[in-house]
Amino acid sequence: MTVKFSSPAELRARRPEGIPWVWEGYLARGAVTLLAGRPKVGKSTLACALAEAVASDAETFLTRPVVAAPVVYVIEEGADTAIEKLGDDRIRVLVREDAWPKPPWRDLIAEAVEEAARVSAALIVVDTFAAWAALGPDQENNAGAIQAALDPLVAAAQRDLAVLLVHHARKNGGDGGVAVRGSSALTGGVDAILELDRGEATTRVLEAVGRWAQTPARLVVDRDTATGGWGVTGPLALPEETLEDDQRRALEVLDQHQEIGLRDIRAALEGIGAPRIAHALKELQAQGLVSHSPGGPYRRVGHTPDTPDTDGSQACPVPPPLKGGTRDTPTQTPDTTSFDLNDEDLDLLARAERLAADHADLAGAES
To answer: Are residues 47 and 79 in contact, defined by beta-carbon separation less than 8 angstroms?
Structure first.
């Protein structure tokens, strides 16, 4: 084995032009980026649109600059559906029927790297990790198995390529990488994590965390079904009435528990996305109605959980008025409020969630 230590000045000299972006803020040569989302949320559709933007000399994708270069795309779909998503001839596609039986994972990535060198590609997309790596449930939750699966991708990136790995999210979701299915070795071993989730109506929320300061924390995006194009619709913004209703529903859940974790709150508030829930809880904390310390459960301030009265009925105290309106009468003239959830408290909370999720995965693997 040969290793070489360098000074920071020597490292900077290797990249005098700065970070070699393929998609600014998200994908760079020499780096591996993970894109995760629940089934059918649109992660493959988004990845294909990105590949099209890079291959077709588009100047930007989702308002961020992209380079113009060929792309190698390894897709789990068959030719019939792949051609509906990928049309530019500078994309070299490997479809399911042309790699059957599946080659070993390392051989597959080696073939993709060889094809990338042949066509001078800047980007390799592997869609999806679960389909092509073919790891069993126990292996997905095994840090050693995940690290071994990441090694060929890291080696591919070292060939001056950007690598995008598409993967599935956990059913219960999460923030800051917690949503990604499997061992935390996967999120810890990549350079950036992108999580795609459903937003309001047809929109999607793209959240990102990574090693680069240039990575946008959150974008709300939408796809034009007529043209297939993706666009940024703006910051996370909702009418004041909707925000107050989120807070009201969160209080109703908290009223039933001495304390409750964020994952259980999300499970109870089905239909409300994770960013909205997090914002509602922050607002309730600011109003003094909810207490919470990073990594701990949420508690309703000045209230005991609902208990049966002597006649068997449930006592249900009415929470005090919410900021911006009353409990029964919402603000008559709703406005649009933008909010940013990328703060230190949520980062700490996300780390705690990650540890809890890993513990649950380990317990499931051992059982």
So the answer is: no
